[in-house]
Amino acid sequence: MQNQISITRPQAGYWRATFSNPPINLIDPDTIAELSDLVAELERDPDVKVIVFQSSDPDFFLAHYDVLADKARTAAMAPGPTGMHPWLDVLSRLSRAPVVSIAAIRGRARGAGSEFALACDIRFASEKAVLGQFEVGVGAVPGANPMARLGGLVGRGRAIEIVLGADDFSGALAERYGYVNRTLPDGDLDVFVDGFARRVAGFEKEALAEAKRFLDQVSLPDDALFPAALETFFRSVARPATRARMAALLEAGLQTRSAVELELGRHVVLTRT
Fold first, then answer.
1. Which family does the record claim for this protein (predicted)?
2. Which one, 1, 69, 81, 172, has least CB within 10 Å?
């Protein structure tokens, strides 16, 4: 298995994780396994204080889940330490890990890519970022329950707009809604994120971890909300109408470096069965 995530350590207490899974940084079972191993390191390393997640591809942070991945393999993956499916497990443990996790979003983060970004503590975006939960547009229910996270971040009405509208959100609009913390000019993103991470890495680990723990208590959804959403996702993607809409998108160029992937919010509306 080729590694999809490379780790560098620019400074004591500061890690950078870079995604690279050509052609468009799809998430698949191997991505989940690597993330699980990485989160375990974050949980047990006494020195790491902050981790930045970024992409080697300027057009795709994490595109979405690989719809051609073996669904039986995905569904049958062994539960993680929380007892949940490993995708839910990774997201929950990352949110609660005693480190500050930052998604530096340049390019597209949709579907499971958006779910991953939402599980990070902080989201900083480039003006070229595009975020969205497109699943309802193809007849599916988002599997990791981003509804629970978005409701707390952006409010009920805007969460409904994001999830049920299934459209793309630019970096600027995502910032306005609270989907991301802030959006910066593309040329400024890396410098800003690096500066913030270095600042946090200079503080004491115990204070960071304990302050985050208290914030978690009042801001994170209960883990019990997540498994039912994933079960509903698996049922929804098995429906004939959903399979037909997905097949039409694949025929049009989904999962390739195509106009469909670049403007997926528009193409889920154009897809007809």
1. Belongs to the enoyl-CoA hydratase/isomerase family.
2. 1
